[in-house]
Each structure stands twice: as C-alpha cells, then as structure tokens.
Design a protein that fits this description.
The chain is mainly alpha-helical and 236 residues long. The protein contains 6 helices and 3 strands. The radius of gyration is 16 Å and the shape is globular.
Length: 236
C-alpha cells in the first residue's frame, strides 16, 4: 500500500503541474492568483525538476532521506483524527509516521497483487463511483496523506515561500487549515501557501475533476469533512 501511495503522491503532483498554468476554476478556491508561480514551484520541488518528467516515479532526491514507519514514536496516533505526522521535519532526515487509520485510505494507481478490474480487489481503490458530487474527504487517498507530509519537509519546500508549510491554527491553537471545508474558500488565502492541506486538497480536487470529468461543488460543513476514518472529523 505504501509503495502505491508513493506513486499516487507523484501522480497528484503531476496532474497539478499539467493544469496549474491555465486553471482558472479550481485554483482560486485555494490560493491567491499572485501565488500561482510559488504554488507551482512547491509541487515542482516534489519532483526536483523545473519540468514534468516523463516518468515521475522517484521524485526529488531529498525524498530518499525520508524514512516511513508505523511505529508511533511521539504517541500522536492516539488522536483519532491523525492519519500521519512528520518527525524531525526541520532536519535533513525526517520520518513520516503512518497511523493505522491511514491504511484505510485507498489507492488510485495499481497495487501489487490487486487488479483494479477484479471485483474482489476493487475495495482497495478509490474511484469516481466513490465521490458524492462535492469536494469531500471521499477524495482522500494514502498518496495524498504522504504528499501532505512531504509539504512539511522544510528542506524540500521551505525555500519557495521563505517559511515552513505547516498546519495553520488560530491564536488559540485551534486548527483552521485541515480538510476540505476549512481550505476551500475559508482559510485566509494569505495563509494558504503555508498550509499543507491547501496544497493537498487542491491536488485532490484537480485529480478527481480530471479523472471523473466532473465539476465538484463546494464542500459542506459537517458532511464533507466528517471522515469516519478520523473520528467523524477532518483528518490531520
């Protein structure tokens, strides 16, 4: 599942890079128009190139420094809304911890030993049939979870906007940048370039728009952010 997740993360970024220059429909729901070049560069950094490679299967060389594990070293997976987190994000060798519920998230690209055309294996894959017509947690995948964590790797992307990409909070420490409802037209767009889920849901929205040939409506609070894999909340 994790190997397919790596591929899905690059696929999400590749779809963004194929469309971002001309995207006047989806992009404005997540970012200011003046930040387009910087947002594009953040996605380019996941590839480590200034052009879309023909086979974006390995990404930026820095990604090889990331260790992925299931051992919950900081005991954060006890929070039901946490899918994953990054340890040592400000070092050259960070670790991504995947919580058990992250493995409830499905794949888009092929899994070894699971044929997406086989009825018995379809449970492993996210498809257009899973969508509900709105930007929703239903779009989320394991690859998107990994991509979200890549954005926290300071050595990979901090230089683009000159500050880390974090999970935004209000002055009282309450999250304001998690999930489709908070990042779609609600988060202050001056903060969006520094918020990981803004990139993640922009990429997910764009991917499913292309794959399903569908214009998805705005997310609905209490419905499209009520992810059962995260305790009925937006995942963190």
């Amino acid at each position: 599942q994790v190997e397919a997740g790596f591929n899905d993360a690059f696929e999400l970024a590749a779809y963004v890079l194929n469309s971002i220059d001309d995207d006047i429909d989806i992009f404005p729901h997540y970012f200011n128009g003046g930040d387009r070049a910087g947002v594009k560069n953040v996605f380019l950094e996941t590839f480590g190139t200034t052009t879309i490679p023909e086979n974006p299967s390995t990404g930026n060389d820095l990604l090889a420094n990331i260790h992925v594990q299931r051992q919950d070293t900081e005991n954060l997976c006890g929070n039901s809304r946490t899918l994953a987190y990054m340890h040592d994000h400000n070092t050259d060798k960070p670790t991504i911890i995947l919580c058990d519920n992250a493995f409830n998230k499905k794949a888009v690209t092929a899994l070894n030993g699971a044929d997406p055309q086989n009825d018995a294996d379809k449970k492993w894959y996210a498809t257009c049939d899973d969508m509900n017509g709105h930007v929703s947690y239903l779009m989320n995948t394991l690859g998107a979870t990994l991509l979200h964590e890549y954005f926290h790797f300071d050595g990979l992307v901090e230089s683009v906007f000159g500050a880390p990409i974090i999970d935004q909070q209000d002055p009282n420490g309450n999250p304001i940048g998690y999930g489709p409802v908070q990042v779609y037209d609600n988060l202050n767009k001056d903060l969006a370039p520094f918020n990981a889920d803004s990139y993640t849901y922009y990429a997910l929205h764009n991917l499913w728009h292309v794959l399903c040939e569908e214009d998805f409506a705005a997310p609905r609070a209490g419905t499209d952010d009520a992810d059962p894999d995260c305790g009925g909340q937006a995942c963190a």
